[in-house]
Specification:
The chain is mainly alpha-helical. Helices cover 78% and strands 0% of the residues.
Length: 126
C-alpha cells in the first residue's frame, strides 16, 4: 500500500499527464475545425448552438448564433440572409427569455435542412 508521501508524489505527474492529454485533445479539435469546409462550419455552429442550449451553456449557444449571423451574406443572398437573421435573432431572444426548447426545436430544424441541402451527415443527439 503506497504511503501518503508516495500518493502526493504521484499527483503532479498525473496532473501533467492530464494537462498533456487536454492539450493534445485541443490541438486535435483545432486541426479538425481548420479542415472543415464553410458548409461544415455552419453545420458545426448549429451543433454548438443546440448543444449549448441542451447543456445549459447559454453563453456558448448565444456565441454560436452570433457567429451564424456573422456568416450571413446580405449582398449575395439578401432575402434568404434576412430571413435567417430573423430566425437566429428569434432564437437568441428565446434563449435570453429561458425558452431553450423553442430555440432547440428551431435550430434542429435548420440544422436538418442545412444537412439535407448539402448532403451532410445527420444531426447527432447530444
Amino acid at each position: 500500500m503506497p504511503s501518503v508521501y508516495e500518493k502526493i508524489a504521484e499527483q503532479p505527474l498525473a496532473s501533467a499527464n492530464n494537462m498533456f492529454a487536454s492539450r493534445a485533445a485541443a490541438t486535435y479539435r483545432n486541426e479538425q475545425l481548420m479542415n472543415l469546409s464553410p458548409v461544415e462550419v455552419v453545420a458545426k455552429l448549429y451543433d454548438v448552438a443546440i448543444l449549448g442550449c441542451k447543456k445549459q451553456n447559454l453563453s456558448l449557444a448565444q456565441r454560436a448564433l452570433t457567429e451564424l449571423i456573422g456568416a450571413l451574406n446580405f449582398e449575395l443572398e439578401g432575402e434568404l440572409s434576412l430571413q435567417l437573421f430573423q430566425l437566429y435573432d428569434y432564437c437568441k431572444k428565446c434563449i435570453r427569455k429561458g425558452n431553450k426548447e423553442e430555440a432547440i426545436s428551431l435550430l434542429e430544424e435548420l440544422r436538418s435542412a442545412w444537412s439535407e441541402a448539402f448532403n451532410l451527415r445527420p444531426i447527432r443527439n447530444g
